[in-house]
Amino acid sequence: MDIMITVDDLAFREELRRFLHSNMTKEISRKLAEGIVLSKEEVAAGTRDLYKQGVPTWPKEYGGTGWTLVQQYIFEQEVRAFPALVKFGMGEDLVGPVIYTFGNLAQKKYYLPRIANATDWWCQGFSEPGAGSDLASLKTRAVRYGEHYVVNGQKTWTSSADYADRIFCLVRTDPDVKRQEGISCLLIDIKSPGVTVRPIHLINGGHEVSEVFFDNVHVPVENLVGEENKGWGYAKYMLSNERFGDSGVGPSKERIRRALALAAQTYVGGERLIDQPSFREKVADLEVQLKALEITQLRAIANASKQQQENPASSILKLRGSEVEQSAAELLMAVMGPNALPYTPNEVLGSRNEPPILPRWAAQIAPTYFYSRSASIYSGSSEIQKNIIAKAILGL
User: Is the pTM of this model over 0.85?
Assistant: First the structure.
């Protein structure tokens, strides 16, 4: 592994810490620390705070900072620890890179600034009721009539669709060829006539995902990304970016830090939880797993290709990252103990008007644990990641 944190990187970290203390809205940081769900307006405000120097992961010519991969990694760690990490939909990490890599000049000029200044919240229209991990079997159709495509079909498990202004959608434009060869990418205004968003209520009490229905939705041909029927390649590029950022090292570190702090205040049988050998063994085991994952991510950063193509090594990060993330959520549940039993949505939303029935720190832990079970499913299930690793990396 040819990577090291240089003196310049350490100076960058200190400069970044000063920037966060000077620019981040204190109320947003407080809510993030307490696990309170932010409104769309608060997420937009926090995103603008973070993007004052440019979008952290983008090249300078498209409104980014032009930071190296190591600097981007340091940025993610610091904003997690502050805490200050807010994401205004999927524009920065997923949609933006596809547009500036494969989109035309008009699309770059219009959409990229709107992502950079948190004007448009993007969601990702990939999965369907019959096409989840087997994404190539999608059936949402787009038929061209003159200067418009007419879209019919359904997407599901669409994250933050109820917040979204636009959706990056995979559609079938040629049903008579090999499945992967008849798919295109469309940029769709989610408020277009014929689009219906129906939130799905989850086990954690929230509705982070939705069903999205398309009923004769007219989409201008100018909203086609790249070439017609070439969308599968663009989608693989996007999913590679998503999985590369899905290792979850930052969130897992934060959960372990929080678990240790809370365990020092929690007594079980007259003894602090943090002093009990069984709990300390759990922490040590998880920290070893997390350190191995972090080193693997640093290796991936060091070996990242300079070419714009999918990176199968991202599947390793996604697979192990989701497992470590779930273990970190379980660790917090162990600290929470009986406090996990009541469900207090007003605490999670920060809208209570009566005395809390739980310690203030407890409200979000159980919902987070339940939601973490989906980590090994979204962005490609663990079984799919193992197949990719076996084929693309091990050559089996």
Answer: no
Query: Per the structure, how many domains does the chain have?
Result: 3
Inter-CA distances, 17 with 76, 77, 83, 313, Å? 12, 11, 11, 30
Q: Do residues 88 and 118 make contact, with C-beta atoms less than 8 angstroms apart?
A: yes
Are residue 216 and residue 255 in the same domain, yes or no? no
Percent helix, percent strand, percent coil in the chain, to nearest 5: 50, 15, 30
CATH code assigned at 19: 1.10.540.10
237 within domain boundaries: no
For 2-25, write each residue's pLDDT tens digit.
Answer: 456 788 989 999 999 999 999 888
Catalytic residues, by residue number, are 242
Q: What is the DSSP letter of 159?
A: E
How crowded is residue 65: how many other Cβ atoms within 10 Å of its Cβ? Answer: 17
What integer is the mean pLDDT of 299-327? 76
Q: Residues 187, 155: one domain?
A: yes
Q: How far apart are CA 298 and CA 318, in angstroms?
A: 14
Which of helix, strand or coil describes residue 81?
A: helix
The domain boundary residue, chosen from 38, 67, 86:
86
What torsion do the CA atoms of 92, 96, 100, 105 make, to the nearest 10 degrees?
-130
Tell me if residue 209 falls in helix, strand or coil.
strand
Supply the range of the domain harboring residue 174. 122-229
On the 0-12 / 13-18 / 19+ scale of CB atoms within 10 A, 109 is: exposed
Annotate 152-161 with b (16+ C-beta within 10 A) or e (fewer): bbbbbbbbbb
CATH code at 159? 2.40.110.10
Q: Which residues make beta-bridge pairs with 210?
A: 158, 199
Is 136 a domain residue?
A: yes
The C-alpha atoms of residue 317 and residue 247 are separated, in whole angstroms, by 5
Gap between the Cα atoms of 351 and 347, Å rounded = 6
